């Protein structure tokens, strides 16, 4: 492993992945670097891209700078992205540099039934105890696409990179984790009160049922609060993962 952590290293460490026995490293030309676009680390031994990928590897040119070779973590991550293995590297993930790994789900009930973390709860659980630690966050509902090559590793804190794949947002956004929790608290308060996520994202005043229950004054107060968050990456994540509490 290198002095800095890459998404591939985080996944390999968190999932305990290894290279299949039928794939072997080879000596590479002097000065070679990992061919995966953002990695580019110097390597003396690596894995030929042609030995790691197949005709079914999608978005080849998006991932690789031509042919060449991959470093060990990137090669392991690619070789383990197989439907026969359950696509372990194509799942939503929150993993820390020490190898602590979560594959969270949006719905709290489904997460509990499957013994997995719920995003809403996990976002709060890791703060502030994990503040400053290296983290990889991929938030998606698409369990088939290989998203990790586009992700970034960063520190949990004021500018945490999150690969968000939802709605109109498909890429890395940077969030203040503590502010994310504050935004999520407000969104879930309003969601629990009976307003839909559509109204929370747009305007509360169009949902007359919930409006009549809580009154215009309260709805306007919530609307002002939500208005200060709309358009931020924290709001995009909060409305994606929000769960209803007990009303």
Explain what you see.
- By secondary structure, the protein is of the alpha+beta class.
- The protein has a domain at 178-241.
- Helix content is 36%, strand content 15%.
- β8 (160-166) and β9 (169-175) form a beta hairpin.
- The protein contains ten helices and nine strands.
Residues in β-strands, percent: 15-25%
Pick out the low-confidence regions. Answer: none
The H-and-E topology, N to C, reads as HEEHHEHEEHHEEEEHHHH
SS-derived structural category: alpha+beta
Number of helices: 10
> What is the overall pLDDT average?
91
Number of strands: 9
Task: Spell out the blueprint of helices and strands.
Blueprint lengths: L6 H9 L10 E2 L17 E4 H4 L7 H4 L5 E2 L1 H8 L13 E4 L4 E2 L5 H6 L5 H7 L8 E7 L12 E3 L4 E7 L2 E7 L1 H16 L4 H5 L6 H20 L5 H9 L6
Parallel strand pairs: 6-8
Antiparallel strand pairs: 1-2, 2-3, 4-5, 4-6, 6-7, 8-9
Helix pairs in contact: 1-4, 7-10
């Amino acid at each position: 492993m290198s002095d800095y952590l890459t998404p591939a290293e985080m996944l390999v460490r968190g999932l305990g992945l290894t290279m299949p026995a039928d794939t072997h490293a080879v000596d590479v030309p002097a000065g070679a670097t990992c061919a995966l676009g953002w990695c580019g680390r110097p390597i003396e031994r690596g894995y030929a891209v042609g030995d790691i990928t197949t005709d079914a590897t999608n978005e080849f040119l998006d991932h690789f700078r031509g042919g060449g070779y991959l470093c060990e973590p990137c090669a392991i991550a690619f070789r383990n992205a197989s439907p026969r293995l359950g696509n372990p590297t194509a799942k939503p993930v929150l993993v820390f540099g020490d190898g602590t790994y979560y594959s969270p789900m949006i719905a709290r009930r489904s997460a509990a039934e499957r013994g997995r973390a719920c995003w809403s709860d996990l976002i709060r659980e890791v703060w502030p105890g994990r503040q400053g630690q290296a983290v990889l966050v991929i938030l998606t509902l698409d369990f088939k696409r290989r998203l990790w090559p586009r992700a970034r590793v960063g520190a949990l804190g004021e500018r945490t990179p999150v690969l968000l794949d939802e709605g109109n947002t498909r890429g890395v956004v940077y969030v203040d984790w503590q502010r994310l929790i504050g935004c999520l608290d407000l969104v879930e308060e309003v969601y629990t009160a009976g307003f839909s996520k559509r109204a929370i994202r747009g305007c509360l005043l169009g949902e007359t049922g919930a409006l009549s229950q809580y009154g215009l004054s309260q709805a306007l107060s919530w609307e002002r609060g939500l208005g200060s968050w709309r358009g931020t990456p924290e709001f995009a994540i909060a409305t994606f993962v929000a769960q209803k509490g007990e009303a």
